[in-house]
């Protein structure tokens, strides 16, 4: 019976932790990922614009 109680308690805590994974920290992480991706895209766009303006042979950034 003691093993059952210990197992039930462990499952209870594991379920509690998994329910917290979609909280504010997860949302903040997704927002940071989006900001970093947008910044990378902006840098690449600026590079492409600069190469077009200078008529560079190599158009890859």
Automatic annotation (TrEMBL):
It comes from Brumicola blandensis. Keywords: Signal. The keyword Signal applies. Residues 1-19 form the signal peptide. This is Uncharacterized protein.
């Amino acid at each position: 019976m003691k093993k059952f109680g210990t197992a039930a308690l462990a499952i209870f805590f594991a379920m509690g932790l998994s329910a917290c994974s979609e909280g504010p920290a997860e949302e903040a992480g997704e927002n940071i990922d989006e900001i970093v991706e947008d910044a990378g895209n902006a840098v690449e766009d600026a590079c492409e614009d600069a190469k077009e303006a200078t008529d560079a042979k190599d158009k890859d950034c």
